[in-house]
């Protein structure tokens, strides 16, 4: 315990900043990732075979590629193709792509929970297909995926640790721990503090997700 | 399952709508082909299509080296999965135990291992443990953290399965005079396993993905071997592309297997 107190006296503000950066990275990749995933889901409903094929390929690639492999490709291989992306945007892009693929997958499952009879009813009322998607199908699908999306958000938050794999000017939690562990003997205490911060953030997200799920759930 | 939703949505198009769909499809195909051509052109103009970046893929030694890397990945993933399945069961039993002295530490261990990034655990094994005198081989520096964090997730998956087994099964087994151990291991757990096999197999994808961090501890898995190849042939883009494709194929295969296993249960 004394070790933790000494560590916090020396690195307290650094831990605060690192936690904040972890939150920031999570948020700025989750929001666009979620929106992109929603666009992909809707486009995949279109009766356009070439588009469906390419988007299915997109989802399967980014769902199955390890995030680190993707990050390393973006950071180290793309410059050889004359595409230069800075380190922080590269991390955000990696997480966004992965998040969008999983969102598309979960939303598709959510859409499958909407009974077909509702679509038939909407069609017989004379609604256009796109209007049905936006007014009937998507709202219910979104309400059905609160729980998997919560798990995805937690997984994404933990994945921000891969920012430690690129020379980042700011330090998120994992980078900070590896730095403290290399510089001093306080590695164990630093690890304990960072782990507590990750676990607390995860529990917070899980709690918020459960509360939202309770409000949104559709009983069928 | 009945008809997919999109088939109902666009099921009976008018002649006009059909023409429109065909035209838009053709335009979309053209645009996507244009995009693909643009990517190929970018490879060409950056000089990445030159033979010297690709010709070593014709040598069997290259593939043997990549296969060795893949084998390293699978060896680590398999051991991590074995650790996760066994330790997950221990954590589950602790989580379900009645005495608080057993239950609370188990819950704490599950939440801790589940809520901490695997990469952070790897750094602990790699940077912190040696400084307190614990020396692990690179294989264990990778496999142990991956196995530990997966164990916590597996424990929760097990629990979901156990809770899904109807209560009547437990009651019936007890009324037959089975002991608590027999009730769990002969009646509840085997049935729980059948519910959760797809979820467990899906978890294997995450294990394979996590072993990618092997290059952090320089364990010879696929990503690490890719880095060695790149250092030898100065060919970044092709090697990373091939390796990414290999990972995708392995994981896609596992995902498909998991979906197939999930089907007959419904």
What does this protein structure show overall?
- The complex is a heterodimer of chains A (220) and B (266).
- Chain A is mainly α and 220 residues long.
- Chain A has one domain (2-216): MetI-like (MetI-like fold, Orthogonal Bundle).
- Chain A has helices at residues 2-45, 49-64, 67-77, 87-112, 116-124, 129-144, 146-159, 173-183, 187-216.
- In chain A, α1 packs antiparallel against α8 (173-183) and α2 (49-64) crosses α4.
- The longest helix of chain A has 44 residues, at 2-45.
- Chain A is flat.
- The N and C termini of chain A lie far apart (51 Å).
- Chain B has 2 domains: 5-45; 59-265, MetI-like (MetI-like fold, Orthogonal Bundle).
- Chain B is built from 11 helices and no strands.
- Chain B starts with a helix and ends with a helix.
- The mean pLDDT of chain B is 85.
- Chains A and B meet through α2, α3, α5, α6 and α7 of A and α1, α2, α5, α6 and α9 of B.
Gross geometry of chain B = flat
Straight-line N-to-C gap of chain A: 51 Å
Run of helices and strands of chain B = HHHHHHHHHHH
First-residue to last-residue Cα separation of chain B: 10 Å
User: CATH H level of chain A: which superfamily?
Assistant: MetI-like
Count of spatially separate domains of chain A: 1
The CATH homologous superfamily of the largest domain in chain B: MetI-like
Greatest chain-chain interface? A-B, 60 and 55 residues
Q: Report low-confidence residues of chain B grouped into runs of 5 or more.
A: none
What's the total number of strands of chain B? Answer: 0
Q: Fraction of residues of chain B in helices? A: over 70%
Taken as a percent bin, the fraction of beta residues of chain B is: under 5%
- Quaternary organization: heterodimer
What gyration radius of chain B follows from the Cα positions, in whole Å? 25 Å
State the CATH architecture of the largest domain in chain B. Answer: Orthogonal Bundle
Q: Given this structure, which CATH class of the largest domain in chain B is correct?
A: Mainly Alpha
């Amino acid at each position: 315990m004394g070790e933790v107190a000494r560590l916090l006296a020396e690195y307290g503000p650094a831990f605060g900043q690192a936690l904040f950066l972890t939150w920031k990275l999570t948020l700025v990749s989750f929001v666009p990732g979620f929106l992109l995933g929603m666009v992909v889901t809707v486009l995949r409903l279109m009766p356009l075979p070439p588009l469906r094929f390419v988007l299915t390929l997109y989802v399967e690639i980014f769902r199955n590629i390890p995030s680190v492999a993707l990050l390393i490709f973006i950071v180290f291989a793309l410059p050889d193709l004359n595409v230069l992306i800075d380190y922080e945007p590269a991390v955000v892009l990696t997480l966004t792509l992965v998040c969008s693929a999983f969102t598309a997958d979960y939303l598709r499952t959510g859409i499958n929970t909407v009974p077909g009879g509702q679509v038939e009813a909407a069609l017989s009322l004379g609604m256009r297909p796109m209007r049905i998607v936006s007014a009937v199908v998507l709202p219910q699908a979104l309400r059905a995926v609160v729980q998997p999306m919560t798990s995805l958000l937690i997984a994404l938050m933990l994945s921000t640790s891969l920012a430690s794999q690129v020379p980042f000017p700011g330090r998120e939690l994992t980078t900070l721990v590896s730095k403290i562990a290399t510089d001093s003997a306080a590695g164990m205490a630093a690890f304990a503090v960072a782990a507590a911060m990750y676990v607390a953030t995860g529990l917070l997200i899980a709690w918020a997700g459960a509360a939202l799920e309770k409000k949104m759930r559709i009983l069928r | 399952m009945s008809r997919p939703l999109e088939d109902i949505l666009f099921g009976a198009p008018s002649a006009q709508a059909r023409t429109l769909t065909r035209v838009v499809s053709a335009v979309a195909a053209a645009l996507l082909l244009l995009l693909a051509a643009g990517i190929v052109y970018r490879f060409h103009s950056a000089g990445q299509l030159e033979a010297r970046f690709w010709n070593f893929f014709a040598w069997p030694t290259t593939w043997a080296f990549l296969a060795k890397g893949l084998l390293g990945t699978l060896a680590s993933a398999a051991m991590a999965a074995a650790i996760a399945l066994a330790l997950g069961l221990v954590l589950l039993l602790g989580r379900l135990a009645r005495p608080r002295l057993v239950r609370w530490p188990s819950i704490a261990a599950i939440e801790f291992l589940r809520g901490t990034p695997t990469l952070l655990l790897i750094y602990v094994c790699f940077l912190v443990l040696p400084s307190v005198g614990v020396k692990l081989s690179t294989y264990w520096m990778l496999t142990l953290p991956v196995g530990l964090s997966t164990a916590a997730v597996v424990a929760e998956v097990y629990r979901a399965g156990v809770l899904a087994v109807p209560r009547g099964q437990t009651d019936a087994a007890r009324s037959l005079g089975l002991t608590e151990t027999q009730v769990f291991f002969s009646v509840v757990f085997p049935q729980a396993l059948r519910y959760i096999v797809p979820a467990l197999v899906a978890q294997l994808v995450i294990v394979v993905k996590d072993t990618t961090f092997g290059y952090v501890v320089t364990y010879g898995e696929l990503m690490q071997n890719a880095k060695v190849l790149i250092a030898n042939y100065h060919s970044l883009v092709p090697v990373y592309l091939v390796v990414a494709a290999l990972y995708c194929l392995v994981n896609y295969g596992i995902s498909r297997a998991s979906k197939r296993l999930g089907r007959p249960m419904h």
